[in-house]
Amino acid sequence: MAKTIHMIKSDYLKFLKRKEVAGKPIVDKLGKLNKFYLPLSEWLYKIYKKDNKLKIIGLSGGQGAGKSTITSILKFILKKKYDLELCIFSIDDFYKTKKQRVKMAKSIHPLFLTRGVPGTHDVNLINKTIKKLKKRKFKNFLIPTFDKSIDDRAKEKKWQKIKKVPDLVIFEGWCVGALPQKDADLKKPLNLIEKKYDNHLRWRKAVNNNLKNQYRKIFNKLDKLVYLKVPNFNYIYKWRLLQEKKLKLTSKSKKTMSKSQIKKFIMYYERITKHMMKNSYKISDLIIYLDKDHRSKKIKSND
């Protein structure tokens, strides 16, 4: 076991070194491993070991909370320590194509041109993916990939190939597990976008109805949900900005967003993000409270 932990530690530190591309060092690396990643891995292992059957775990949290980094680290810990095969996919991978969103923008509301909110994902494709993962006779299949630098679905040759039967599946995304709001709570605009472009509430109501219906059916398929709770909504902007800096350094001159564009972009996410932060104890089985340095300061089980 000591040898395994040493290998995990070595791989973990190498992985984080590659992540430090934006010039900002990651603080308390070993503290995060011991207080966060290893306990979370053990929690997931225990869930699987209850009956040794496939489990689908939701991982949710605001933009920039670290969902992609967390899942990448969990993948090699679960494999090396527990010999568990982990399949990871994001709700972002299932964004509708630009062409489909243009159609939605014309037929429902112009704000649906911007990816993000419930309604801009291919729900049928998500359902098909979950069915393929749960099939008794497993067959290799592809999970789509979304290229944010071109704001469109990537070509099929770039899709994720699932070749092994997973023991655990992590379905991550900013709105995974979100609950709809009461109709009365939709009336007051939260930001400039809602006030200026959705004064008749058509966009807000359509998004909320999607959460009530198609998205609820998907989220009901989760066995457990882990929620990453950021200190407050201001950190969504700060951490999303850091994400964009990293993207700029690693995407080989592809188009990235400016500060003002990011500020506007997160307005699309604001309503649901704040609603999830407020109701985190209702939607999740495990809440991970993050501090201003992206560290886990507390893990609370709601089981």
**Which structural class fits the helix and strand makeup?**
alpha/beta
What's the architecture, going by CATH?
3-Layer(aba) Sandwich
Count, helices: 11
Question: What is the CATH domain class?
Answer: Alpha Beta
Spatial extent as radius of gyration? 19 Å
Number of strands: 10
Number of domains: 1
What is the CATH topology descriptor? Rossmann fold
Mean pLDDT across the residues is: 91
Spatial sequence of strands, sheet with the most strands: 2-7-1-8-9-10
Q: What level of helicity do the residues show?
A: 40-55%
Largest sheet: 6 strands, mixed
CATH superfamily: P-loop containing nucleotide triphosphate hydrolases
Shape: globular
Please trace the helix and strand order, writing H or E for each element. Answer: HHEHEHHEEEEEHHHEHHHEE
Strand content: 5-15%
The poorly predicted ranges are: none
Q: Kindly, what is the distance between the CA atoms of the first and last residues, rounded to a whole number of angstroms?
A: 29 Å
Quaternary structure type? single chain
